[in-house]
C-alpha cells in the first residue's frame, strides 16, 4: 500500500497522540496477547455474531458488531474503516423520526437541511446518494424526498469513506445501512403518542410476535404518523409510514423473511430564505416563509424485501436477498429568485417536477469460518445485481411574478403550474430517463496468520451499463464497461481492548454528462487511505475510535473555458483529509453516551462546477457532537432518566459568498417510568433558543435557519 509522504507524517503524529490519550505504552506493540477472548467470536463451527441480537433487545447505546460494509456481521474492532451504529434507544431518547434528523446529531455526518425527509446527508464532504435496507441499496436524494423514516428500523449503521467492494458504483461518502425491526418469538407491542410546540404531533403502534402456535411463523406491524414542527409559517410537513414483516422458519436452519415498507410525504415546501440587500443573513426572522401558499411536495414510496438464509452444519451461512423500490414524487413550488433590495422586495423563481423511480437490488452471498495457521479466519464470496431507473420531467422559471414582490405578495402569489408552463413555453423544460445497471462478483478474506493480526483483502469485478435519454433533445447516450475494485486492510490487536487498523478502498461513479465528441464521460474515480486505533470496553458495550483519512476524487465533470460549449470535460479533482474521534455506547447499564469530534480539510485541486465544488465550502472544519443519558435505579429517583447534549460546528460558507458563523445547540431530555408498562418523556430542542443558520446557499435561497427552542412530550404504553 502506497501512502503519500505528507499523509504518512500526519497519520503517524495522530496515532502517536492517540496511543498517549488511551494510555497505551509503546511497548504494547511487542506484547503478546494476554486476553484473546474476543477472538472466540469466530470459531470453525461458526460466527456467533451471525445471531447477534437486535439493539431493542440488548438496550442502551452500545453494540459490538455491524453488517455495514462487511456483508456478514463483524465486530467493530475488526472492520478497518470508520463505522458508527445508532441503536434504537439512542434514536428514541433523542426523538429522531427521519434519517436526516439523526444525521444532524451523529458524529462524522453533515446534513444540508431542507424539510425533514428532504435533506442532503454527507460524510467526509460527499453525499450519501443511496441507503441500504439489510444490505440492499436503493437511491436516496433530497429532491425526490427519499430520505427514509426510522419507525421500521432497529438501528442505523453508518460507514464513512468508499465502500466499492460491495457497492462499487456509489459515492465516496460511504454507506448508510438500516437494519429492520424483525418479528419476535414472544409477543410484544407498544403504543406511543407525542405532542409538542409548533404543532408537532405523532402517533405509533408497533406489534410483533408469533402467528402460529409453534412460533415458526412470526410477524410484525408498525404504523406511524408524524407531523413535524412548523416553526416556519405555512410550512406543513406530514408523513405516514407502514411496515409489515413475516419471518418463516422453513426448517431448523432455514428462514424466509419478507418485508413491506410504505412511506407517504405531504409537505408545503420551504426552500429557505434570501439574504438582505447588504448580503446579510436575516437573523431574527426565522419564521418567515419565502414561498407561495400553494407550494406543494407529495411523494410515496414502496419497498418489498425478501430474504432466504440458511445456516450450514460446517458453520457457513448462505443468504439470498432482494429489494424492489417503487417511488413517485411530484412537486411544484415558488421561492425567492433574488436577494432582498432596500425596499425588501425580491424576484420570484419556481420549480415543478414529476419523478418516477424503480430500483431492484439482488444479492447472494456465502460466508465460512475456517482454520489456518492455528487460528480461525473467515471468507465471504458472493454476487449481486442492481438496476436503477429514473424518469424525470422538470420545469424551472426564473420569473413567476411580474416584477419584484414583497413577502406578503409572495405568500399570496397566484397559482402557477411551473412544469406545465415550462413545457408550454419550451424554456426551462427537461424530460429525461436514466438507467444504471450493474452486476458483480466479490470476495473478501480475513486471514489471521497469528492471533493478534488480521489481514483483510478483497476484490470486486463489476460490469455496468449507464443509459441516458434526453427526450427534449431527442438524444440518447450510453456507456458499458467492466471495472475491478480492490480492497485491503489490516487489524493489529495491541491488547485485549485496543487495535490498530489501516485500510485502502476504492470506488467509481458513472456520469451522465457528455464530452465534445458526444460520448459519456468516463466514471469518476476515488480512493481512500485510512489509519486509526479502536478500543472496545465492557464486553463491547463501549466503543472508541480515533482515525485519520485521506480521499482523492478525480475525473469530475467540469465546464470548459469556451463560454458557448454545450459539453463538459472530465478534469475535476478533489482532495479531502481529516481526522475523527468517537466514543459510543454504555458506560454502565444506566449511563449511555455518544461523543465525537470531526476535523475536515478540503482542497479543490482542479475545479469542476461551482455547484459541485461549492458543496465542500459548506463543510465546517470542526464539528463536535455530544449526547449522554443516565437512568436512575432504586431510591427516590427510581425510574427517572436525564439526558442532554450539544452539537457545535465552526463557520462555513457557500460558493456564492454567503457566510455563516459557527454555532452550538444544546438539547435536553427528561424521562420517567410511571410503572411497568407506562413511561413518559420530555425532549427540549435548542434549549438556549440559539438563533443560527444550519445551512447557507445562494443570495436567493437555501439559507436555512435552525429551529427555535421547542418541547415535545410523549407517552408510551407497552403491552
TrEMBL record:
Chief site of localization: membrane
Subcellular location: Cell outer membrane
Signal peptide, first to last residue: 1-30
PROSITE patterns: TONB_DEPENDENT_REC_1 (PS00430), TONB_DEPENDENT_REC_3 (PS52016)
Residues that span the membrane, as ranges: none
Pfam family, one: TonB_dep_Rec_b-barrel
Domain of life per record: Bacteria
TonB-dependent receptor plug domain boundaries: 76-175
Topology in membrane: Multi-pass membrane protein
Keywords: Cell outer membrane, Membrane, Receptor, Signal, TonB box, Transmembrane, Transmembrane beta strand, Transport
Record bears the keyword Transferase: no
Limits of the TonB-dependent receptor-like beta-barrel domain: 250-687
Keyword presence, Protein transport: no
Positions of short motif TonB box: 41-47
Similarity comment: Belongs to the TonB-dependent receptor family.
Protein's name according to its UniProt entry: TonB-dependent receptor
Organism for this UniProt entry: Halomonas salina
Top-level taxonomy: Bacteria, Pseudomonadati, Pseudomonadota, Gammaproteobacteria, Oceanospirillales
Amino acid at each position: 500500500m502506497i501512502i503519500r509522504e505528507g499523509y504518512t507524517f500526519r497519520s503517524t503524529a495522530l496515532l502517536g497522540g492517540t496511543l498517549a490519550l488511551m494510555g497505551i505504552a509503546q511497548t504494547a506493540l511487542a506484547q503478546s496477547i494476554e486476553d484473546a477472548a474476543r477472538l472466540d467470536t469466530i470459531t470453525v463451527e461458526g460466527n456467533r455474531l451471525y445471531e447477534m441480537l437486535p439493539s431493542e433487545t440488548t438496550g442502551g447505546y452500545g453494540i459490538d458488531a455491524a453488517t455495514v460494509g462487511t456483508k456478514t456481521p463483524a465486530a467493530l474492532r475488526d472492520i478497518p474503516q470508520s463505522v458508527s451504529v445508532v441503536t434504537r434507544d439512542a434514536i428514541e431518547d433523542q426523538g429522531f423520526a427521519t434519517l436526516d434528523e439523526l444525521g444532524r446529531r451523529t458524529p462524522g455526518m453533515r446534513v444540508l437541511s431542507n424539510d425533514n425527509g428532504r435533506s442532503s446527508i454527507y460524510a467526509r464532504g460527499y453525499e450519501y446518494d443511496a441507503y441500504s435496507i439489510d444490505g440492499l441499496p436503493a437511491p436516496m436524494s433530497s429532491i425526490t424526498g427519499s430520505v427514509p423514516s426510522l419507525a421500521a428500523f432497529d438501528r442505523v449503521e453508518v460507514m464513512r469513506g468508499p465502500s466499492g467492494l460491495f457497492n462499487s458504483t456509489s459515492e465516496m461518502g460511504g454507506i448508510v445501512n438500516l437494519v429492520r425491526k424483525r418479528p419476535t418469538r414472544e409477543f410484544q407491542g407498544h403504543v406511543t403518542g407525542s405532542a409538542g410546540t409548533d404543532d408537532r404531533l405523532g402517533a405509533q403502534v408497533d406489534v410483533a410476535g408469533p402467528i402460529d402456535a409453534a412460533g415458526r411463523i412470526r410477524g410484525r406491524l408498525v404504523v406511524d404518523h408524524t407531523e413535524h414542527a412548523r416553526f416556519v409559517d405555512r410550512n406543513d410537513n406530514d408523513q405516514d409510514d407502514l411496515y409489515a414483516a413475516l419471518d418463516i422458519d422453513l426448517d431448523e436452519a432455514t428462514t424466509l423473511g419478507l418485508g413491506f415498507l410504505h412511506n407517504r410525504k405531504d409537505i408545503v415546501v420551504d426552500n429557505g430564505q434570501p439574504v438582505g440587500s447588504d448580503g446579510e443573513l436575516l437573523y431574527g426572522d426565522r419564521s418567515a416563509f419565502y414561498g407561495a401558499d400553494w407550494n406543494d411536495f407529495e411523494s410515496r414510496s414502496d419497498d418489498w424485501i425478501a430474504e432466504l438464509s440458511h445456516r450450514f452444519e460446517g458453520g457457513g451461512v448462505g443468504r439470498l436477498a432482494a429489494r424492489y423500490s417503487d417511488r413517485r414524487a411530484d412537486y411544484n413550488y415558488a421561492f425567492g429568485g433574488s436577494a432582498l433590495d432596500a425596499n425588501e422586495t425580491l424576484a420570484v423563481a419556481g420549480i415543478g417536477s414529476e419523478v418516477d423511480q424503480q430500483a431492484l437490488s439482488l444479492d447472494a452471498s456465502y460466508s465460512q469460518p475456517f482454520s489456518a495457521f492455528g487460528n480461525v479466519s473467515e471468507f465471504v464470496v458472493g454476487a449481486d445485481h442492481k438496476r436503477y431507473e429514473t424518469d424525470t420531467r422538470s420545469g424551472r422559471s426564473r420569473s413567476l411574478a411580474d416584477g419584484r414582490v414583497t413577502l406578503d405578495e409572495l405568500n399570496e402569489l397566484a397559482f402557477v403550474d411551473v412544469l406545465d408552463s415550462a413545457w408550454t413555453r419550451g424554456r426551462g423544460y427537461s424530460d429525461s430517463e436514466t438507467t444504471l445497471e450493474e452486476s458483480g462478483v466479490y470476495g473478501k478474506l480475513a486471514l489471521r496468520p497469528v492471533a493478534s493480526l488480521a489481514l483483510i483483502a478483497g476484490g470486486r469485478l463489476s460490469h455496468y451499463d449507464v443509459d441516458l435519454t434526453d427526450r427534449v433533445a431527442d438524444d440518447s447516450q450510453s456507456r458499458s464497461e467492466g471495472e475491478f475494485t480492490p480492497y485491503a486492510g489490516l487489524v493489529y490487536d495491541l491488547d485485549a481492548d485496543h487495535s490498530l487498523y489501516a485500510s485502502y478502498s476504492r470506488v467509481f461513479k458513472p456520469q451522465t454528462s457528455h464530452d465534445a465528441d458526444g460520448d459519456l464521460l468516463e466514471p469518476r474515480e476515488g480512493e481512500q487511505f485510512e489509519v486509526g486505533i479502536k478500543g472496545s470496553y465492557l464486553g463491547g458495550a463501549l466503543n472508541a475510535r480515533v482515525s485519520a483519512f485521506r480521499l482523492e476524487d478525480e475525473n469530475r465533470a467540469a465546464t470548459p473555458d469556451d463560454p458557448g460549449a454545450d459539453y463538459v470535460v472530465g478534469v475535476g479533482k478533489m482532495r479531502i483529509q481529516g481526522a475523527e474521534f468517537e466514543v459510543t455506547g454504555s458506560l454502565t447499564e444506566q449511563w449511555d453516551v455518544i461523543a465525537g469530534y470531526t476535523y475536515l480539510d478540503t482542497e479543490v485541486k482542479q475545479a469542476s462546477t461551482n455547484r459541485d465544488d461549492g458543496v465542500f465550502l459548506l463543510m465546517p472544519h470542526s464539528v463536535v457532537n455530544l449526547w449522554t443519558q443516565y437512568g436512575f435505579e432504586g431510591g427516590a429517583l427510581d425510574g427517572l432518566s436525564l439526558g442532554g447534549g450539544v452539537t457545535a460546528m465552526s463557520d462555513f460558507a457557500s460558493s456564492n459568498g454567503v457566510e455563516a458563523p459557527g454555532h452550538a445547540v444544546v438539547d435536553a431530555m427528561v424521562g420517567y417510568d410511571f410503572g411497568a408498562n407506562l413511561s413518559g418523556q420530555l425532549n427540549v430542542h435548542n434549549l438556549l433558543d440559539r438563533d443560527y443558520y444550519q445551512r447557507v446557499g445562494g443570495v436567493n435561497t437555501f439559507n436555512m435557519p435552525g429551529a427555535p427552542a421547542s418541547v415535545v412530550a410523549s407517552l408510551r404504553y407497552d403491552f
